[in-house]
């Protein structure tokens, strides 16, 4: 058995793990990353939001991503029958990036991981964490099985668990908790987008609302393929008949906007189905570890917040551990848990109000209120810690109250018309 020593062990080489690893390495901290899969590997989560660009830039990973010519994403379009609501990130409230990418994650994550390796970071693919034991001082011994089947030990001062749905530490430490988001499921695949229209329409990322709680995503990639997926209550997804391919085709057929474009195209792989994906944990950190990205909490795909929270929490974990190593006191509950929970709670409100229909009422209300739109746009761009934005600060009430006023206005208009 090989015994290795490192300052920080990072479990998982997704965006969360790569951002944390790169930042720590750039600050001369000894890091080891263990990744269960062989890359490139498929993972869902293809629509990014601008806040991630801050993280990739600060981690020194942005230039390698730019070189890949992924499809640029400047906003998002929401469709409801004949109604359209488009957000343009350049018109958002406040500071921050006004573009990002829509990406096939196999290529995107592979680019990140390759850059991490190029920097000289010790990243071991096809190595699975089997167990972790913590010592009283927070240091730990992790048991890993490598691709030859050998069992080795990694001794670390700190662990950043970025294992996504592997949820390594939540499983071992029994930290799983139910999500506050209603139970939703999804079916998705990629197609060769042979009927893609020329110009902007062909590459526009869109969310087509088929029913208040059921929506279709269309995410065109620069390689000519497009990701299509449906999200809805688990009972709805499971009520669709036939194979996953038949079920997804049936849903695409319900879309007036996209039916013709995807009528005769074949899926590049049998659609995947993920049921009840929302998850949470009882705590985000403890002595000697943090949980980041999907290993901690995942809400819902609707506003593409997954990768953003993954990189935000990966980056913050790295920064706080560095601060501690430099001899400064870190209040993990305040500086990590409270901070992350604030942003997650803002997004959780938007997700919940999407499925109640209140947010859709705001999106499709005409005439548009440009101040409201700018502020919601900043939230959709991932700037959910900006308390100058009243749609961040008052998230708990503002959407519900505005939707109520809009609906009341409609009722009063109708009554005065009837009388
Ligand atoms: P991951 O990217 O999942 O990486 C975790 C890594 O850990 C994996 O490579 C895995 O192999 C490795 N690992 C697991 N177990 C072990 C182990 N025991 N030992 C070693 N390594 C291990 N997010 C968005 O931002 N935009 C979207 O459009 C979007 N759409 C989504 C649609 C659906 C239907 C779902 C379910 C999710 C979606 N997400 C989306 C969320 C997104 O998939 C995740 O939030 C994101 O991938 C999390 O990144 P991560 O780095 O935490 O984990």
From TrEMBL:
Residues 5-165 form the FAD-binding domain. GO terms for molecular function: FAD binding. Coiled coil: none annotated. Pfam families: FAD_binding_3. It comes from the Bacteria. InterPro entries: FAD-bd, FAD/NAD-bd_sf, Flavin-dep_Halogenase_NPB. This is NAD(P)/FAD-dependent oxidoreductase. It comes from Flavobacterium alkalisoli. The lineage of its organism: Bacteria, Pseudomonadati, Bacteroidota, Flavobacteriia, Flavobacteriales.
């Amino acid at each position: 058995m090989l015994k290795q020593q490192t300052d920080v062990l990072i479990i998982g080489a997704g965006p969360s793990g790569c951002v944390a690893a790169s930042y720590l390495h750039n600050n001369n901290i000894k890091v080891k990353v263990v990744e269960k899969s062989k890359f490139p590997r498929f993972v869902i989560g293809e629509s990014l939001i601008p806040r991630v660009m801050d993280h990739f830039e600060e981690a020194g990973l942005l230039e390698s991503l730019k070189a890949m010519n992924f499809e640029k994403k400047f906003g998002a379009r929401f469709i409801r029958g004949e109604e359209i609501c488009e957000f343009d990130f350049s018109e958002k409230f406040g500071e921050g990036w006004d573009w990002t990418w829509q990406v096939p994650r196999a290529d995107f994550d592979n680019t990140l991981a390759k850059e991490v390796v190029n920097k000289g970071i010790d990243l071991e693919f096809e190595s699975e964490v089997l167990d972790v034991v913590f010592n009283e001082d927070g240091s730990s011994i992790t048991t890993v099985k490598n691709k030859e089947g050998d069992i080795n030990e990694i001794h670390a001062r700190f662990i950043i668990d970025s294992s996504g749905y592997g949820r390594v530490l939540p499983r071992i430490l029994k930290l799983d908790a139910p999500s506050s988001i209603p139970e939703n499921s999804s079916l998705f695949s990629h197609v060769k987008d042979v009927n893609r229209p020329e110009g902007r329409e062909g590459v526009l990322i869109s969310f087509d609302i088929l029913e208040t709680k059921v929506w279709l995503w269309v995410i065109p990639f620069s390689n000519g393929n497009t990701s299509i997926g449906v999200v809805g209550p688990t009972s709805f997804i499971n009520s669709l008949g036939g194979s996953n391919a038949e079920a997804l085709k049936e849903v695409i057929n319900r879309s007036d906007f996209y039916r013709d474009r995807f009528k005769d195209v074949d899926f590049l792989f049998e659609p995947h189905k993920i049921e009840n994906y929302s998850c949470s944990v009882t705590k985000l950190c403890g002595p000697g570890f943090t949980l980041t990205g999907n290993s901690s909490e995942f809400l819902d795909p609707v506003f593409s917040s997954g990768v953003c929270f993954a990189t935000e929490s990966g980056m913050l974990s790295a920064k706080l551990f560095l601060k501690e190593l430099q001899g400064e006191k870190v209040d993990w509950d305040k500086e990590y848990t409270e901070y992350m929970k604030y942003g997650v709670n803002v997004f959780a409100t938007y997700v919940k109000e999407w499925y109640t229909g209140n947010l859709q009422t705001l999106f499709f209300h005409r005439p548009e209120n440009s101040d409201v739109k700018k502020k919601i746009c900043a939230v959709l761009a991932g700037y959910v810690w900006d308390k100058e934005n009243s749609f961040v600060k008052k998230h708990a009430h503002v959407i519900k109250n505005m939707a109520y006023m809009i609906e009341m206005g409609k009722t009063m208009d109708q009554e005065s018309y009837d009388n």
